Amino acid sequence: MTSTNLPEQSYDLIPGFSNFDKKFEKIVSSETWAKVQSDFNFSSRILTVGNGGNLAVCDHGAIDIARLTNKSASAPGSGILASSLINDVSHDHWVKNWLTISLRGLSEELMSHTMLIGVSSSGYSKNICLALDLAIKNGCKACLISAQQPKIKGDYNTVILNVDEYHTSEVLTLSLFYQLIHGAGFCCPTISNSIKRQKIDDYSY
């Protein structure tokens, strides 16, 4: 059988990724996103947190923010850390307690240059929303990225993705972390350029 006679293949694509670029562009062109980007640009310390797969996305986002910008960034990605704090209080309050620990010893000025980014798929992650409330109370910048309209409202900026699939929400959120890096004037390197490099970064500024 020649190549011209090969049968056509049909693809059963996973739901949630059609018009992905348009979903992404709609978010980053919004007024809310402009506020989030401005807060990110202003901040020197970035804290990110979510639950489950969203925590993995936040962990990934935090390390690349720390690698690719002049900001410090972290997420409570350790299972030891999370289980210890959950055991001390409850699932609803462990993220708030992690934030409290992370803010210890900071002056009011450093607090004002700290930003907490919380991520929720359902919009009903009480532990994330309580931490965002605490961040605002302490003078930090704060943002919730939610797949759908949140069930809990707060005084922080809320970016609504308007998607129904967990996987779409997680991929969009990770893309938005890179948009924040790019929007702050830093470079998200290409694979080809990274391969060509003959040096080891020391991350000094």
Quick tags:
Rossmann fold; 47% helix; globular; 205 residues; five-stranded parallel beta sheet
How would you explain this protein's 3D organization?
The protein is α/β, with parallel strands linked by helices and 205 residues long. The chain is built from nine helices and five strands. The protein has a single domain, classed as Rossmann fold. The relative contact order is 0.17.
Instruction: Provide the helix percentage.
Output: 40-55%
- Work out the count of structural domains: 1
Order of helices and strands: HHEHEHHHEHEEHH
Largest sheet: 5 strands, parallel
CATH H-level homologous superfamily name: Glucose-6-phosphate isomerase like protein, domain 1
The CATH architecture assignment turns out to be 3-Layer(aba) Sandwich
Summarize the structure.
This protein has 205 residues and is of the alpha/beta class.
Task: List strands and helices in order, with pairings.
Layout: H1 20-28, H2 31-42, E1 45-49, H3 53-68, E2 72-74, H4 79-88, H5 94-102, H6 108-112, E3 114-120, H7 126-137, E4 141-146, E5 157-160, H8 166-183, H9 191-196
Parallel strand pairs: 1-2, 1-3, 3-4, 4-5
Helix pairs in contact: 3-8, 4-5, 5-7
